[in-house]
Amino acid sequence: MKKLFLIFIVFHLSLLSVSAQNTAKPFRAYIYNNDYEVFMRLDLYNESITVPGQELYGELPGYLGKKHNSFCWLITSSKIEGQTAELQMINDYGSEDLTATLTVENDSLYVLRQVEGSSLKVPKDGKWQKLPSKLVFKRR
Question: Which of 106, 140, 138 shows the shortest CA–CA distance to 36?
């Protein structure tokens, strides 16, 4: 019985530790928007993200990807100030670029706002779908 209780305590402490790590590093995350089927993989601290199938780009601060598609917008640089990060992004063709901000609203909500440059577009059903200039993401 004591072993079971000890395992229970250790398990809950490890969950608390993971939760504390996630809130201490809000810009190391996987966030998604189901309405537009897009997601972002981020590590703005260590710039350690590699785009699957596109390793040619090396390690980056992150990227915005489309579910069921290999197209992406690469985050080439970032600057964190409090709960907001300024992102420099370029599409994987290198033909368009933009500046955006990503703001942490709370533990699970992030808001991506396009500031200047090209519009975010992703492929959908053989056409380009323009994303809104303000996009809300949830943390997984």
Answer: 138
